[in-house]
Amino acid sequence: MINTWNESLLHEELKDYYCGENGRKEVPLEGSICDAIRDDGSIVEIQTAHLGKLKVKLEKLLKNRKVELVYPIAKNILIETYDENSMLLTRRKSPKHGTVYQLFKELTGLYPLLDNPRFTLTVVIADILEIRVADGTGSWRRKGIRRDDKKLVKIHESRPFNGRHAYAALIPREVPELFTVKDLKAAGAGVHAGCMAWVLRKAGIIELCGKKERSYLYRRAQVHESSGSVTVTLVPVPTSETTATVP
Q1: What is the predicted pLDDT for the residue at 30?
Q2: Are the beta carbons of 49 and 5 closer than 8 angstroms?
Q3: What SS3 class is residue 119?
Q4: Residue 51, Ramachandran bin (φ over 0: left; ψ between -120 and 50: alpha; else beta)
Q5: Cβ(127)–Cβ(78) below 8 Å
Q6: What DSSP element (H or E) covers 197?
């Protein structure tokens, strides 16, 4: 599964990259430890998974400072497996490839922050080296092989998102005016289409406007790029709608 590693070499390498030459790392501030503070006073947080766990911390920091949350997505993963004596056993490429759309799964707990002008989420599309060790301490599913570390190999693209208009731009142009989750999936969002629709609707970027057969219909809201504000024509929402049944 992509993006389930703990903070490790990957975390440290991204921290160094985004901290800047004059920035400070591991800085205590308002009861929390910030990954980095740049010389302009802005905060950098690196999180490789479970972004929602940072919500309380981010809300506190955003009251007075700009915060950039850096989230890496592995476009390509190279897996190296070593024995317990650090001898290389195998090297192979993972068949899994991440896309920018998988960020929506991570935003289910952060969508209230998407229109905060001080908050920027930077998605880093990168090649990642995953180091594994065959020492018998891993899970039975991996036959005792455990994940030991992650390293940054190459950054392909850094894409910052600031304001709801930036997330609205991820809706593919070929998606019709009225669309379903199936349309988003076919246009490129893939398996992440359901989470994408849920987050965009909760953030006011799209709105629910009816049903087409058994599928919910959505349409784009009017997002003003200058402020990130949204103009929405309110429509009745089915009383049976829940996060479990509506993407």
Answers
A1: 86
A2: yes
A3: strand
A4: alpha
A5: yes
A6: helix 193-202
Predicted confidence band of residue 24 (pLDDT cuts 50, 70, 90): very high
In whole angstroms, what is the distance from residue 64 CA to residue 52 CA? 20
- Token match 């509506």: residue? 246
Q: 217: which residues sit within 8 A by CB, 6+ positions away?
A: 178, 179, 180, 208, 209, 210, 211
What angle (nearest 5°) sits at the alpha carbon of residue 239, between those of residues 236 and 240?
130
pLDDT at 233: 39
Strand partners for 149: 131
pLDDT (tens digit per residue) in 186-235 = 999 999 999 999 999 999 999 999 998 899 999 999 766 444 444 443 33
Find the farthest-apart pair of alpha carbons in the chain and give their distance in angstroms, rounded: 64
pLDDT, tens only, 34-48: 999 999 999 999 999
Radius of gyration of the chain (CA): 20
List the domain boundaries for the chain: 9-162, 171-231
Residue corresponding to tokens 């001080």:
118
What's residue 244's pLDDT?
35
Q: 55 φ, ψ to 5°? A: -55, -50
Count Cβ atoms below 10 Å from residue 124 Cβ, excluding itself.
21
User: What is the distance of C-alpha 46 from the center of its chain?
Assistant: 11
Nearest Cα neighbor of 38 from 49, 29, 48, 47 is: 29
3 state SS of 57:
helix
Q: Does 52 have pLDDT greater than 50?
A: yes
